[in-house]
Amino acid sequence: MVKIRLRRVGAKNRPMYRVVVTDARAPRDGAFIEIIGHFNPLTDPEAFTVDEEKALKWLKQGAQPTDTVARLLSKSGVMEKFKQSQAKKPKSRKSTTARKTTARKTTTRRTKSTKIQSATEEPSA
Questions:
Q1: What is the tally of structural domains in the chain?
Q2: What is the mean pLDDT of residues 3-25?
Q3: Does residue 38 lie within any of the structural domains?
Q4: In 3D, which of 82, 44, 48, 51 has the Cα closest to residue 64?
Q5: Rama region for 94: left / alpha / beta (φ>0; ψ in -120 to 50; rest)
Q6: Residue 124: its pLDDT value, please?
Q7: Any domain includes 17
C-alpha cells in the first residue's frame, strides 16, 4: 500500500517535514517514491506547501494519506478537489467479481438441471 506521510528533516528540536509518497512498509525517514510538499510546524501559522497536481495524482491512484497529512491537505483544499473529482466519476454497473459469481451460479443451475433430467430417465436395459 502506498501512503502519503511526513518525513522528518531539520535539526534537533527544530523539526521540519517533507510530505512524501512512500510504501507503507518503509520506515518514517527511509526510502520514498516522491516529495510532494513541505511542512514547518514552528512558524506561527503552520507553513504548508504542496504540489496540488502531484497530490491529486497520487490520491487518484489510491495513496492513503495519514491523519496529519489528511488534515493539512484539507486545509489547503486538495482533499475537497479530490472528493469532487471522485463524485464526477460514473459508477460502474457491476464489478467483475459480481459478474463472475453470477456466471458461476448460472453454470451450477445448468449442471443441476442436467443431473435431475438424467436421474428421471429410465435406465436402458
A1: 1
A2: 94
A3: yes
A4: 82
A5: beta
A6: 59
A7: yes
